[in-house]
Amino acid sequence: MLNVGVLGAGHLGKIHLRLLNESSKYNLVGFYDANPEHGKSVQEEFGYTYFDSIHNLIDAIDVVDIVTPTLSHFDCAKQAIKKGKHIFIEKPITNTVEEAENLRALVAEYKVKGQVGHVERFNPAFKAVKHQLDQPMFIECHRLAEFNPRGTDVPVVLDLMIHDIDIILSVVKSKVKNVSASGVSVISDTPDIANARIEFVNGCVANLTASRISLKNMRKTRFFQKDAYISVDFLEKACEVVKMKNAPENPGDFDMILQNAEGIKKQIYFENPDVPSNNAILDELETFADAINNNTTPIVTLHDGTEALRVASMIIDQF
User: Fold this and answer.
1) For residue 304, what are the CA distances in angstroms to 52, 139, 163?
2) For residue 236, how far is the Cα from the chain centroid?
3) Which of 63, 117, 139, 194 supports an S-S bond with 206, CB 3.0-4.6 Å?
4) Which DSSP category does 248 fall into?
C-alpha cells in the first residue's frame, strides 16, 4: 500500500479523504488544510489525522493528493516533487500554462509520477464508447450547471468547460489550429456563460458551451464521425451509438433504411452499450496507484493537463 496524504480538506478534499481511506491501494496517513480551525474540525468529525504543517505531511507520505484552490497548486506540487513524492493534482493543473510546464520539467527531473484529476475520463459512459470513437469530425458539448457560489472565483471555462476540453483533446489526435470564443459575466466577476469553437488541423471542429447559471444541469457530448453518431451523457452516465451501414438487398420489415439523392441506401441501427457503475474519483486515484506500482504512464498525464489548460487559456484570451 502507498502512504498518501491530502492537501486541502474542502468539499472535494473530504471526498478524496473518504475514498482514499476506503481504498485497498492506499494507506491514508493524514491531511493538511491551511485553515487550522477547519482542519481540526474535520479531524474531530471524521477521525482523519490532521497535520498542522504541510512539510511534515509531505515528509510522511509517498503520494501527495493536491485538492487545494488552483492558485496554490503549483507551490504545493513543487514542494512535493522536490522531496521525491508522486503527485495527484486536481484540475486545472495550475493557474498558468507556464507553471504547468515547470511542473512537467520537475517531474522529469526528480523521476516521480504525476496525474491530473480530469475525472470525466473515468466516467463509465465515456469509457463504454471510447473505443468506438474513430476520427470524429464534429463534436458538440453542453455542460450546464445550476448556480453554486463555489468555484465562481475562476471563469466558467476553468470551472466547467475544461472537463470537455480534456475529453476532446484525448479523442482528437490533431493539433489545435484556431480558437474563437465569447463569454458573459452575469453574476460573477468572471464569465458565467461561455461558448467556444475549436478547429483542429485535421478538419475536426468542436463546439463547446458551458454555463453555471442554468435552470437545469446537463453534461452531454455528441461525436459525429463517418457513418456514426455517438452521444455521451456524463451526468446520467448513459450513452447511445447510432451507426450506418450499406443497406441489405432485401431489408426486413423493421429495418430503418435511408436513401440519399444519389439513390444510395443506408441502414441505421442503434446500440446502447452496457455502462457498468463505478466511482470515477476512486478509479482515477486507484489507477494512479497502479501506475506508480507498475511503473506505467498515468491515464491523465501532466502533459494532458497542461494541454487542456493551454486551450482553456486560449479561450479565455478571446473574451
Assistant:
1) 32, 19, 12
2) 16
3) 139
4) P
